[in-house]
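Preliminary data (for renewal application), nicotinamide-adenine-dinucleotide complex.
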Amino acid sequence: MAEQAYKLLIGGNLVDGDSTMDVINPATEAVFTQAPRASEAQLNDAVAAAKAAFPAWAATPIDERRKVITAIADAVEANYEDFARLLTQEQGKPLQDATGEVLGTVAFMRYFAGLDMPVKVLDDSEGRRVEAHRKPLGVIGAIVPWNFPMILMAFKLPPALLAGNTVVLKPAPTTPLTTLKLAGLMKDIVPAGVVNVITDANDLGAPLTAHPDIRKVSFTGSTSTGAKVMAGAANLLKRITLELGGNDAGIVLDDVNPKETAPQLFQSAFQNSGQVCIAMKRLYVHESIYDEMCAELAKLAEDAIIGDGLEQGTQLGPLQNKMQYDKVKDLIEDARKDGQIIAGGTTPDQKGYFIRPTIVRDISDGTRLVDEEQFGPVLPVIKYSDPEDAVARANASPYGLGGSVWSKDTDRAYALADKMDAGTIWVNKHAELDPMIPFGGSKMSGVGTELGADGLEEFTQLKIINMAR
Ligand code: NAD
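Predicted structure:
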């Protein structure tokens, strides 16, 4: 086998995978390079290396750990243009969005590098002193999906390291390259074994989750796989954080100006070609402005420029992989019988997993496109007359990741936001993430929290020292 250009990082060494796998550019459907594919033996080596590195890393002063995270951020920043191009090629998103994701990754890393975990004194009285400490857990298995390979990694790696854990990181099989590129840089920054990177063909997530030396699994992906992670972690009562699927509803009240607001709604639903966990996936619009809003959204969809993300001017790239492309096409076909497609609904006659942004009107709850997570560039627009009813319909979903209310009257919007059941409700915006704001889902959208100080604490064990006096 020829030497591989991209390498796994195991125990401080950059090594070839035991085999290789093709990486496809979704804008061309062509294999554009090969990635290493780790074997289960290599996964075990990675976990063993992380376990061996744990005691020394956990004992390393937090300021030193901080410096390592900052150095990783510096290295990504120094190479941000290369990372962005590679991200566009493997993921499909427009270069400008890829650049935003890479620089966002840097910002998220710097945010976590600046956090602290001071000992809290809970009681300091005559009879006792009680302290709350935050201790690292051990080896973390970090599993990332293909829609945002870099920034979702940055939800996990920096807080895990700051807290004193060691990590085995696994990107998604169709987007391994940016993580492997990062592995190449981390080799010279991170002590051997503290971070290990393995890539697979969708076969190592389960053994990583079940491995007896993994103490916590931090997982982002689909709800169905999340359930498998929960089951796989159950025997050893491992800690888990699950960031899963969503079916975010946006509720637009009758006082909204469709022309003004449609561009924001469009962006909330179609950025990254709809492949965003917190994309707006169902839009409820009041009957008084329904026709006008549908027309505005259709116009934006018709005008959107889709194409190869490396081409200047591209607004929306392809779907990331064939499986997702087929799934979204199937949902659009199904929606034809339930609603009226007023924009898109077609695939351009060219190579690549492209689907034109699609708007479906006169569709309602109880259809697949409304009830399921489409995770692609198609938005059902649903008419309602009573806002309370819209909230009830928004809440009648097994998912609860995000949601939004849109109105000129923020008091009215706030009152409805308060009734919506999801981890985050935005008012007059959707899908804003910030590293200092905790993020997580209700119901089947997840377990636990990422980001913010809460996200850091999830990588720790709370330990109380209670001393008699
Ligand atoms: P997926 O569940 O198919 O895969 C996610 C990761 O899990 C991949 O790395 C995969 O190799 C790995 N995996 C596969 N089988 C596994 C197993 N049995 N045990 C452990 N890991 C396993 O998800 P996907 O299709 O890559 O991503 C799309 C989904 O992710 C959507 O549902 C989306 O909403 C969700 N998502 C959620 C968030 C969030 O923060 N809530 C963010 C992004 C994406």
